[in-house]
Write a structure and sequence with these properties.
- By secondary structure, the chain is of the alpha/beta class.
- Helices cover about 30% and strands about 25% of the residues.
- A hairpin with a 2-residue loop joins strand 8 and strand 9.
- The mean pLDDT is about 100.
Length: about 280
């Protein structure tokens, strides 16, 4: 049994504000250990439950945040950028039996600690077939296309609520409770590690590939905080204006949909100007 861990940082233990997740800051350096603790706890729990392999896919920013030397020796870690499926890279090879979303967060425009979808501020909302979409929802649809269940989600309490919509049967662990976008009531790393490990062990019986779900077509709509960003997004073939500061595109599969999403966000991020956005 092989389990993929998609590891993001905003939903990690103790993380509450931008400097905690911005590579190169003293706060980020400290929070790397907390992030690593959450991810390692998930891996240990999966091994406790009987998993044979755990592959960790780094999914935050530079995708070079986790401390490899502090992970259990049995795991393997995929680190670095420019991956075909970004946050769920590795799910497409037919050998993954389950996926875990560790350190996840709510989507752009929603309540939640460090809530966003791919870009920190420029995107103010994302909708998938009319439903407000977090990164978890988008990635869960990719996983479904490969017949891989989401069995564990960790993050703040509102992330767990969000996960109830796209992975109702998954184990969920809240490592902190939302107060504002930049404040939370946090549990200690010793406590969250124990909670995550126990939940991961309970999640193992949920693993097992199923018949892939062909749920397309998928229409993705994005709203930006400035008109010029929406205009920039239309450089991507298929992306067209759909409202004030909005663009949308339709893909036959979520594989194509998430790759187009990555292209749109890459183009838009290059059009953001300092201070004015």
């Amino acid at each position: 049994m092989k389990i993929l861990v998609s590891a993001d940082m905003e939903g990690a233990t103790g993380v509450t504000w931008p400097a905690d997740v911005l590579p190169g800051t003293p706060q980020w350096e400290r929070c790397r250990s907390l992030f690593t603790s959450d991810v390692n706890a998930a891996a240990l729990g999966f091994y406790d439950g009987g998993a044979d392999e755990v592959l960790i896919n780094e999914a935050h920013w530079t995708m070079r945040n986790l401390l490899l030397e502090r992970l259990d020796d049995r795991v393997q870690m995929l680190t670095g950028k420019h991956k075909s499926l970004s946050m769920v890279e590795g799910i497409q090879h037919g050998d993954v039996d389950a996926v875990a979303f560790v350190g996840y967060h709510t989507g752009a425009g929603a309540e939640g600690v460090l809530a966003h979808t791919y870009l920190a501020n420029s995107i103010t909302g994302v909708w998938l077939n009319g439903v407000r979409a977090s990164e978890g929802l988008l990635n869960a649809h990719v996983a479904a296309e490969y017949g891989v269940p989401v069995v564990l989600v960790t993050g703040d309490d509102l992330t767990c609520v969000d996960a109830g919509g796209y992975a109702p049967d998954a184990e969920k662990v809240a490592v902190k409770d939302y107060v504002s976008r930049y404040a939370a009531v946090c549990r200690t790393p010793a406590r969250t590690a124990a909670d995550i490990r126990a939940a991961a062990a309970r999640a193992v019986p949920l693993a097992g590939r199923y018949t892939p779900v062909e749920g397309g077509p998928f229409t993705v709509e994005l709203e930006f905080d400035a008109e010029h960003l929406a205009a920039a997004a239309t450089v991507v073939p298929g992306a067209a204006p759909s409202g004030e500061r909005r663009v949308s595109y339709t893909s036959a599969t979520m594989y194509e949909g998430i790759r187009t999403f990555k292209a749109v966000t890459t183009i838009v991020s290059s059009a953001v100007e300092e201070q004015y956005g």
